[in-house]
Write a structure and sequence with these properties.
By secondary structure, this protein is of the alpha/beta class. The protein contains 14 helices and ten strands. The chain has an eight-stranded mixed β-sheet, sandwiched between helices. It has a two-stranded antiparallel sheet with strand order 9-10.
Length: about 300
């Protein structure tokens, strides 16, 4: 298939690469031309503007947006809605709030432009492993784009979740669960570090051990093996942990739905608290975010 990709950040660039490797044609646009030039060298066709991107695509056009959630996505959809034609398709692959998807889909429907929301998980490892993709919108359009989803995802790695907003809703809850899992690992290693046996512990070896048949084995623990391997006590980073918004939205949804979610809520509050201290558990969380998503960390000042 031929598809336009807007946004060549940590995930967008590798998604283009994965599509190219699977035989798709990609027209790529990024606000800064350097990344466009780079991906052109790998086989993509570049565009210097949204207008040029629209011209280079064939009807029915497919445009995938991979930008940070918020006003920048709104601005791009607003411009695209004036460039695209009836029957064209916009896929929002960032971390938008599901209520925004419902509104956007209704607004674009007035122009007969289709809209899918695709929650994408995989971070900087997606190029190699594939991107777990949760999709909302019209099912017929989802099925039309199945070659794209098949190429981006690992086997059984994408799912139609329901009408507009459903994909990002499932991704929002996914990220809330992620918060809780990471917090548990952080607290567990902090307890190990505070124990009378800490001088005997090799945290890389413990993380590796727990992945050998243990009930708490996971990809996150695999990433901790890497993190502890390069920095055994995580002394080179500060335990300052950002939140991207979806954890907050998950807690707000729990309140609205009257569903008890104390683990997720407490993990969000722990991230707030991390900005006032530098505990071992918070350094574990910061290291995990760096390992799976390439998120920036604050480096510890050298003596």
């Amino acid at each position: 298939m031929r598809i336009g990709m807007i946004g060549l950040g940590r995930m967008g660039m590798n998604m283009v690469r994965r599509l190219l490797r699977n035989g798709h044609e990609v027209v790529a646009y990024n606000r800064t031309p350097e990344k466009v030039n780079l991906i052109q060298q790998e086989g993509a066709e570049g565009a210097s503007s949204l207008e040029e991107l629209a011209v280079k695509l064939e009807a029915p056009r497919v445009v995938w947006i991979m930008l940070p959630a918020g006003q920048v996505v709104e601005d791009h959809i607003d411009i695209l809605s004036g460039l695209l034609e009836p029957g064209d398709i916009i896929v929002e692959g960032g971390n938008s709030r599901y209520t925004d998807d419902i509104r956007r889909a209704a607004e674009l429907e007035k122009k007969s432009i289709h809209y899918l929301d695709a929650g994408v998980s995989g971070g900087i490892w997606g190029l190699e492993v594939g991107y777990c993709t949760m999709v909302g919108g019209e099912k017929a359009i989802f099925e039309k784009l199945s070659p794209i989803f098949t190429s981006l995802a690992p086997e059984d790695g994408y799912l139609y979740c329901g009408p507009a907003g459903a994909g990002h809703f499932v991704k929002m809850i996914h990220n809330g669960i992620e918060y809780g899992m990471m917090q548990a690992y952080g607290e567990g290693f902090a307890l190990l570090e505070a124990s009378p046996y800490s001088k005997n512990f090799d945290y890389k070896e413990i993380a590796h051990l727990w992945n050998q048949g243990s009930v708490i084995r996971s990809w996150l623990l695999e990433l901790l093996v890497d993190a502890f391997g390069s920095d055994p006590k995580l002394d080179d980073i500060i335990g300052y942990v950002d939140d991207s918004g979806e954890g907050r939205w998950t807690v707000e949804q729990a309140i609205e739905s009257r569903v008890a979610a104390p683990v997720i809520a407490n993990s969000l509050f722990a991230r707030f608290q991390s900005r006032d201290k530098n505990s071992f558990s918070d350094r574990v969380l910061a290291a995990l975010r760096r390992e799976f998503g390439g998120h920036a960390v604050k480096s510890s000042p050298k003596e």
